[in-house]
Amino acid sequence: MEAHEISDIELRRRAHGRLYEEFLRHDSMSLGLYVLPAGALDPQQPHAEDEAYLVLKGRGRIRVGDDDREVGPGSVVFVPKRLEHRFHSITEELSVVVLFAPAETRPA
Q1: Which CATH number fits the domain that encloses residue 60?
Q2: What is the pLDDT of residues 2-35, one digit of tens each?
Q3: How far is 75 from 65, CA to CA, in rounded Å?
Q4: How far is CA 1 from CA 4, 6, 24, in A?
Q5: Among 10, 30, 70, 108, which has the minimal tally of Cβ within 10 Å of its Cβ?
Q6: Residue 80, in any domain of the structure
Q7: 105 pLDDT band (50/70/90 cuts)?
Q8: Which residue spans within 18-104 are E strands per DSSP?
Q9: Is 39 within a domain?
Q10: Which domain does 34 fall in, by range?
Q11: Number of independent structural domains in the chain
Q12: Residue 1 domain flag
């Protein structure tokens, strides 16, 4: 078994000063915690992998391709690989679990 606590992952993310902290990696998938402060600009670019978001807390909007919707605690959003997407209009700090399948390609 591999088990993780979001509170521990959040502490590591803050200690490293990053928006994103990966906490699980296997060939078939990877998981990370992504946190964007209220008013932040989401810097991400399209990925080579399918992706799913589960919003744990916070409020904002997400644009995926031409679709745009509000997100909040409990929202789940699927993003097909290589599709332009971005969180925006963040009114409360967003804390989001991100799943990549297969595992996210790491920059060289």
Answers
A1: 2.60.120.10
A2: 999 999 999 999 999 999 999 999 999 999 999 9
A3: 18
A4: 10, 16, 12
A5: 108
A6: yes
A7: confident
A8: 20-26, 29-36, 50-64, 67-71, 76-79, 85-101
A9: yes
A10: 6-101
A11: 1
A12: no
Residue type, 20: Y
- Alpha-carbon distance of 65 to 23, in angstroms, equals 27
In a domain, 108, yes or no: no
What six digits make up the tokens of 88? 């925006």
Higher pLDDT, 106 or 2: 2
Residue whose entry in the numeric block shows the structure tokens 């964007």 = 36
Give the whole-angstrom CA distance, residue 52 versus residue 100. Answer: 7
Residue 13's H or E segment, with its range, is helix 6-16
